Amino acid sequence: MNPARLRTIVYVDDEPDIREVVQLSLELTEGLKVHTCESGELALQVVPQLRPDLVLLDVMMPVMDGPATLQRLRGMGALADLPVIFMTAKAMPQEIARFLELGAAAVIAKPFDPMQLGNQVLAIWKALPGE
Amino acid sequence: MSDAEKLRLQLQEIGTRFLQRTLREIEPLEEFRRRLRTGDRTCLAEIQRLAHRIHGSGAMFGFDAISMHAREIELLAGSEVVGVDLLLRLESCLLALKNATHAAASTRGLQ
């Protein structure tokens, strides 16, 4: 059980509509501070600077997809333990198992309900092992 | 107004913008289809990318028919073999996507 309070999130997705919805949803329903990135490459610059509590990563992105972005983040020493949640339409059990093996803390299926996304993210956050 | 009501209103606005953009994207999709008919396969990746976006966002905003037809197009564009059968199916799915988008747009007074 994670006792720390979740405050800041970086959300990475190439789809502008979905970035806007995720940001609105998490900020309005849970009062979180959400920064968005339109690509994995940009996330590799932004995440080390902002040091968010949590990263939400879309899986299917051009050039650098979610798994490749996660791998690169894990290679940055100080970010090796940063919790990352994948968001994907590829949420079949075998795909979820693969994403967890890659080091994701959890997987949220797309499409998601914007009214419930905050609850989902907080439930995952609370279930993470505390520091 | 509660935060949940604010969120609902903003989601509706973003959904309307999604429909406006999708209406604009149908013409490029049709142009890609014409190029496919001439044997140009280079646009398959772009068709797949556009269809993937429409599929994902459409489902999130509750435009189920739009999302479903876009998903079919995404899968067809990802096919290894591009033959007459695929082109005909792509044509049919594009028409269905166009009709579904116009239908959704008209319910929001966009046409």
Written account of the structure:
The complex is a heterodimer of chains A (131) and B (111). Chain A is an alpha/beta fold. Chain A has a single domain (8-126), classed as Response regulator (Rossmann fold, 3-Layer(aba) Sandwich), CATH 3.40.50. Helix content of chain A is 42%, strand content 18%. In chain A, strands 2-1-3-4-5 form a five-stranded parallel β-sheet, with helices on both faces. The longest helix of chain A has 15 residues, at 16-30. Chain A is globular. The model of chain A has no long low-confidence stretch (mean pLDDT 93). Chain B is mainly alpha-helical and 111 residues long. Chain B has one domain (3-107): Four Helix Bundle (Hemerythrin (Met), subunit A). Chain B contains four helices and no strands. In chain B, helix 2 packs antiparallel against helix 3 (64-77) and helix 3 (64-77) runs antiparallel to helix 4. The two termini of chain B are 30 Å apart. The interface between A and B is medium-sized, with 17 and 20 residues.
Poorly predicted tracts of residues of chain A: none
Give the count of structural domains of chain A: 1
Note the gap between the termini of chain B: 30 Å
Structural class of chain B: mainly alpha
The rough form of chain B would be described as elongated
Strand coverage percent of chain A: 15-25%
Backbone CA Rg of chain B: 15 Å
Mean pLDDT of chain A: 93
**H/I helix tally of chain A:** 5
CATH architecture verdict of chain B: Up-down Bundle
* Shape type of chain A: globular
The helical percent of chain A reads 40-55%
The count of helical stretches of chain B stands at 4
CATH topology of chain B: Four Helix Bundle (Hemerythrin (Met), subunit A)
Summary, kept brief:
With about 130 residues, chain A is α/β, with parallel strands linked by helices. Chain A is about 40% helix and about 20% strand.
Task: Give the SSE map.
The complex is a heterodimer of chains A (131) and B (111).
Chain A: E1 8-12, H1 16-30, E2 33-37, H2 40-50, E3 54-58, H3 66-74, E4 84-88, H4 93-101, E5 106-109, H5 117-127
Parallel strand pairs in A: 1-2, 1-3, 3-4, 4-5
Helix pairs in contact in A: 2-3
Chain B: H1 3-37, H2 44-60, H3 64-77, H4 84-107
